[in-house]
Write a structure and sequence with these properties.
With 145 residues, the protein is α+β, with helices and mostly antiparallel strands. It has one domain. The protein has helices spanning 2-8, 17-26, 45-58, 99-109, 123-131, and strands at residues 33-34, 40-42, 64-73, 76-83, 88-95, 120-121, 141-142. Strands 1, 2, 3, 4, 5, 6 and 7 form a seven-stranded mixed beta sheet that branches. A hairpin with a 2-residue loop joins strand 3 (64-73) and strand 4 (76-83). The chain is globular.
């Protein structure tokens, strides 16, 4: 089923092979998969597709695919995103404690934001961050302006 989704939604093919392998291993197309307990969660492919589709519907220039989250408490979390243009990952603050903050972060997620080199991490760095259960405060998180 995971392989079928990667073929059906061409933007998923952009994700790095290490991310493809995580999805193939976990087979999480409809349910989230805990990468570390209780920290990082690999989003189900159904949700990845839904979020990307909603964002590109709002803004066709959106170049970012969310695929994993790290909960930060009080409705906040960090999304690990893949930037199609730079072929790098970055951490984006998301969610919120009220509807205004949720909408503000959603608008930023739907923007045509392209992370700078200093805001980006490669797949190996993200995997180390996951493995070491680094907290939100130890990551280089991008916040909505």
């Amino acid at each position: 089923m995971v392989a079928d989704m990667f073929h059906k939604y061409s933007f998923l093919e952009c994700l790095p092979s290490a991310i493809h392998n995580l999805y193939k291993h976990s087979q999480c197309h409809t349910e989230a998969y805990a990468l570390t307990n209780p920290q990082w969660v690999l989003m189900p492919l159904d949700e990845v597709v839904q979020r990307y589709t909603q964002r590109t519907t709002r803004n066709a220039q959106c170049q970012n695919i969310d695929f994993a989250t790290l909960y930060d408490g009080m409705g906040y979390y960090v999304a690990c995103c893949y930037c199609i243009r730079t072929k790098q990952l970055y951490y984006r603050h998301d969610g919120g404690g009220n509807l205004y903050e949720v909408e503000h972060n959603c608008n930023f997620a739907s923007s045509d934001f392209i992370p700078s080199e200093t805001q980006s991490v490669d797949v190996q760095q993200w995997m180390q961050d996951v493995e070491k259960c680094r907290s939100v405060h130890e990551l280089n998180v991008v916040y909505a302006p």
